[in-house]
Write a structure and sequence with these properties.
The protein is mostly helical and 57 residues long. It has one domain (2-56). The protein has helices at 2-8, 12-24; strands at 28-29, 44-45.
């Protein structure tokens, strides 16, 4: 994560979310996906198909 901190401005909370997602081998669902797109191997779920479900989550 140190690599991305300097080159992409990755903040500590975003790094913790990323490391947790990678460690648990689960996809990440985020409204702000541009913060994570550059991380190799991080599966991102698109938010748009899930928008109708958000009030129930």
């Amino acid at each position: 994560m140190q690599t991305y901190a300097f080159s992409h401005g990755l903040q500590i909370p975003d790094a913790l979310i990323t490391v947790t997602t990678l460690a648990l081998n689960i996809p990440l669902l985020s409204k702000n996906q541009c913060d994570y797109r550059f991380i190799v191997g991080l599966p991102l779920l698109p938010l748009l198909p899930l928008l109708p479900l958000l009030p129930y989550l």
